[in-house]
């Protein structure tokens, strides 16, 4: 993490909003969350992190002035698996259908106003570093609220979403909070 680059981006950016871009909710066929069997041990698995997708867009304001908008994309997901069947500490992309009970996935984007021109190539590395390490802090509360709302609509007890953790350099695209 290069704090100098992050500070440069933070000085140039002003958060405007966080928006849901894509979502998917899957509940196992025949599973009734309101009637969870006492013998069933559902364990949550989490993933989340920046997708690496950044859009720098020049935009016209009402007065005719040009401003710059920057959008950072961030994916997050949680799933409930049968804890008796799998090791919940091992994140596996593919799990057997019979062990997956609920899955909630999303992609959000955070939109920022930027006080630099859209074609400022010197700012690009700072924006990339900011996207890797800071955007998650702005998106995570929206992700947590989405999960709580989805659980209520599914009739599930709330799945606790842990605090956001800064991704490690080697796993920037898939942070897994503990």
Count of folded domains: 1
Class from secondary-structure proportions: alpha+beta
The total strand number stands at 4
CATH fold category name: Bacterial Protein-export protein SecB
Overall 3D geometry?
elongated
Structure report:
The protein has a four-stranded antiparallel sheet. It has three helices and four strands. The protein is an alpha+beta fold and 178 residues long. It has one domain (3-162): SecB-like (Bacterial Protein-export protein SecB).
Short description, anyone?
The protein has three helices and four strands. It has helices at residues 3-12, 124-133, 135-154, and strands at 13-27, 42-60, 66-82, 100-114. β2 and β3 form a beta hairpin.
Please describe the structure with a list of short key phrases separated by commas or semicolons.
178 residues; alpha+beta; Bacterial Protein-export protein SecB; 4-stranded antiparallel β-sheet; 3 helices; 4 strands; 37% strand; disordered C terminus
Explain the layout of strands and helices:
Layout lengths: L2 H10 E15 L14 E19 L5 E17 L17 E15 L9 H10 L1 H20 L24
Antiparallel strand pairs: 1-4, 2-3, 3-4
